[in-house]
Design brief:
This protein is of the alpha/beta class. It has three domains: about 1-140, YqgF/RNase H-like domain (Nucleotidyltransferase, domain 5, 2-Layer Sandwich), CATH 3.30.420; about 145-275, Helix Hairpins; about 280-425, no CATH class. The chain contains 19 helices and eight strands. The strands form two sheets. It has a six-stranded mixed beta sheet. A two-stranded antiparallel sheet has the order 7-8. β4, α3 (about 80-85) and β5 (about 95) form a beta-alpha-beta unit. α12 (about 245-280) crosses α14 (about 295-305), α14 (about 295-305) packs antiparallel against α16 (about 345-360) and α17 packs across α19. The longest helix is centred in the middle third of the chain and has 34 residues, at about 140-175. The chain is globular and about 90 Å long. The mean pLDDT is about 95.
Length: about 425
């Protein structure tokens, strides 16, 4: 924080902006947080943006300032147009962000009141910047921007798939509870086709056995047939499923199955586009040279982190992911440490997934996992060990991207860690 405060000098103008859909409010202050102008209403168009920069320019000239720092909360998409306008503006103002939680908590510091207004929020943001409670805003460009948008789209599609799948499972649990025990994956293509044709026990019992066998063989490409059909008919004969409301549920299941099929196709399309973008970046192949790292994790890392050249150390990426540790201690009580979870949640999630996939496909990370689990001092539980492995994967990916070097298994663990592993052998 001290470095951030030192960036603000006596010749710095600080502008806090509270963004909204149609109109923003801005407060122009000096380095002490004193208002230099009245609150400015900024319409979300070129006229409003130009008006803001004109007022800032006049304030700089009047007060002899040569640096402008403009900050806002990264809440939603309302700030995007203004941020890009400021990024490419000839005056090159310093663009920073403020945590919305900090703004909420600091509202009462100035007037001891819970009053909330856009004008007040803009001033609170300016004061937080003055105190060094801000972060530099990163706006990805080129293929990094494409990857971030595709990552967001994939998250949306995966949520829709999960929502439809969970509802289908819930309905079968209610109306045909024995059905789910017949499939390892109730949402596999064979199961979905059976649910389209005969979703209830009464439908299964009404079907001819040979027709049911033919249906199963057709949709499973011959992998399943008579055995599944007999099990299905036996389960239907002894089912305790709900009998009422079946026609409405039949319609709902049909809608859900169509939604599931549609979003699965969307998922394939999005992942195909991710592959296209990755192939256009040399770093995509570099990251995927590490066993356990596929295109989805590589795209998530590059899309969420962006250009790694903007970071000096891997610890900055760790903080961006919210994987840095926090302590909860007071007096003589020594609390346990845990991760802060104050970074980008999708990056953190994908690094956890990277820990799991590398556990299966990467020999070095598998050894590291077993070390975390079996060491004599502070052995970790499963989830803790996976997070620790994911953090190690993040460090390796950062090094590979920073230096544009492929994965080297001999350098993955280092001498100290290898010595520790040897003690478990």
């Amino acid at each position: 924080m001290q470095e951030k405060i030192l960036r603000i000098t006596a010749t710095t103008i600080i502008v806090g902006v509270d963004t909204a859909k149609d109109e923003h409010w801005a407060r122009i202050t000096d380095c002490r947080g004193v208002d230099l102008t009245k609150p400015i209403k900024v319409t979300n168009n070129i006229e409003g943006f130009d008006k803001l920069m004109t007022r800032i320019g006049k304030a700089c000239a009047t007060h002899g300032c040569n640096q402008v720092m403009i900050g806002m909360e990264p809440s939603g998409h309302y700030c995007r147009a203004l941020q890009w306008y400021l990024r490419i503006h000839p005056s090159q103002p310093v663009l920073v962000g403020v945590n919305p939680y900090h703004t909420k908590q600091a509202k009462e510091l100035d007037d001891n009141s819970q009053t909330k207004s856009d004008k007040k929020d803009a001033l609170v943001i300016a004061h937080l910047i003055r105190d060094g409670r801000y972060f530099d805003t990163y706006l990805p460009k080129g293929k990094y921007a494409d990857l971030r948008v595709f990552n967001t789209e994939r998250q949306r599609v995966m949520k829709e798939i999960s929502r439809a799948g969970n509802t289908i499972i819930a309905l079968t649990d209610e109306y045909f509870p024995e059905y789910g025990k017949l499939f390892e994956n109730l949402l596999c293509p064979t199961s979905c086709e059976i649910l389209r044709t005969a979703p209830f026990p009464s439908d299964v019992m009404a079907m001819n056995r040979d027709d049911l066998i033919a249906l199963i063989r057709r949709v499973s490409n011959g992998a399943m047939g008579q055995k599944l059909a007999d099990s299905l008919m036996q389960a239907a004969a002894n089912s305790v499923g709900v009998q009422e409301g079946k026609e409405a549920v039949r319609f709902r299941l049909g809608q859900l199955l169509e939604s599931l099929t549609f979003h699965l196709k969307q998922k394939d399309a999005v992942e195909e586009q991710l592959n296209v973008v990755l192939k256009g970046m040399g770093l995509g192949d570099v990251l995927q040279s590490m066993p356990g790292i596929g295109p989805i994790i590589a795209a998530a890392f590059l899309g969420e982190v962006g250009d790694v050249s903007r970071f000096d150390t891997w610890k900055q990426v760790r903080k961006l992911a919210g994987l840095n540790l926090k302590e909860n201690s007071s007096g003589k009580r020594k609390g346990k440490t845990s991760i802060t979870k104050r970074g980008r949640p999708y990056l953190r999630h994908m690094l956890y997934m990277a820990g799991e996939t590398c556990l299966m496909h990467n020999d070095e990370m598998r050894q590291l996992y077993h070390y975390f689990r079996e060491r004599s001092i502070n052995p970790l539980k499963y989830n803790q060990a996976i997070v620790a492995v994911g953090l190690k994967v993040m460090r390796i990916l950062f090094y590979m991207a920073k230096n544009n070097k492929a994965y080297d298994p001999n350098k993955a663990l280092g001498d100290i860690r290898k010595a520790q592993l040897s003690l478990l052998a």
